[in-house]
Design a protein that fits this description.
This protein is an alpha/beta fold and 280 residues long. It folds into 2 domains: 138 residues, 3-Layer(aba) Sandwich (Rossmann fold); 100 residues, UDP-galactose 4-epimerase, domain 1 (Alpha-Beta Complex). The protein is 43% helix and 15% strand. Helix 1 crosses helix 7, helix 4 runs parallel beside helix 5 and helix 9 runs antiparallel to helix 10. It is globular, with a radius of gyration of 19 Å. The two termini are 38 Å apart.
């Protein structure tokens, strides 16, 4: 009997992935890992086993991963007191110690060659997994439509639709579509590919604005103006710089790719952009 595990199950991605996985395999073959196990018990499907899964506690992780065959390793958020590099080293080491035979890891588009600073930790993690000798699939997720929620909602309320990415394109898709695909890969046997470049159709911010309902102006600005606008809206300088950097690398083409991996794994077309925005 194959045992499946998913980390970070209390987050949006993890919740969606584990609910879909429970539709693919028996719940009693699923282990849910979370820092907050009490919260996890409230959100996972009935029959799923909940274990401690704090990325900063390698010994605890190794214990929790005992008996697990296939692991969906959801990358942590950057900026935590313990670096993402350290957290990810802990997870890979724990998986290796526990004898996990397969890891599906949520990575960054073309992580091995990308010049975007956001790709650095993902590139390192992919290398750690390769060196561990554990069979794997790298789920290189492009960009969640949810990342644009503040821009879209502002425009829907009549404010300007502001961006600084120029003609740069991103492969927006709903987070639930990426998470569902991750569960599908985890449940797949030996036929899973080593690398999936998951993305929706490449589109510009002008395309995104056209699909957004409402009466608003579309305003293209410089990165400096974009950051200043974020700070005037209440973001601290560091956060505003980070968010602006996303616009920069989209303009530079970091997220511009043509791939059908996401649709193929899901087995159907992605939610049309206008419908996805309504859902958002």
């Amino acid at each position: 009997m194959t045992t499946f595990a998913i980390t970070g199950v209390t987050g949006n991605f993890g919740r969606t992935a584990i609910k879909h996985l429970a539709q693919l395999v028996p719940a009693n073959q699923i282990v849910a890992l979370a820092r907050n196990t009490a919260k996890a018990q409230e959100v996972v499907p009935e029959g799923v086993t909940v274990r401690a899964g704090d990325y900063t506690k390698p010994e605890e992780l190794a214990e929790s991963l005992k008996g697990v065959d296939r692991l969906l390793f959801i990358s942590s958020q950057p900026g935590a007191p313990v670096s993402r590099e350290t957290q990810h080293r802990n997870v890979v080491a724990a998986a290796q110690k526990a004898g996990v035979s397969f890891i599906a890891y949520t990575s960054f588009p073309h992580a091995d060659t990308s010049t975007a600073p956001l790709a650095d930790d993902h590139k390192l993690t992919e290398e750690l997994i390769v060196k561990s000798g554990i069979a794997h699939s790298f789920l290189r997720n492009n960009w969640y439509l949810e990342n644009e929620a503040s821009t879209i909602n502002a425009a829907k309320s009549g404010k300007d639709f502001v961006y600084s990415a120029g003609k740069g394109r991103a492969g927006w898709a709903l987070e639930r579509e990426y998470a569902t695909a991750a569960a599908e890969v985890l449940a797949t046997g030996d036929t899973a590919k080593e690398i999936y470049e998951f993305a929706g159709p490449a589109r510009t911010y002008e395309d995104l604005a056209k699909a957004t309902p409402g009466d608003f102006k579309v305003v293209a600005v410089t990165d400096a103006e974009y950051q200043a606008g974020l700070q005037s809206a209440g973001l601290d300088e560091g956060t505003a710089q980070l968010v602006t950097s996303f616009q920069t690398f989209i303009r530079q083409g970091v997220l511009d790719e043509e791939t059908t991996d996401l649709q193929e794994v899901l087995g159907h077309e992605l939610t049309p952009l206008t419908e996805a925005i309504k859902e958002l």
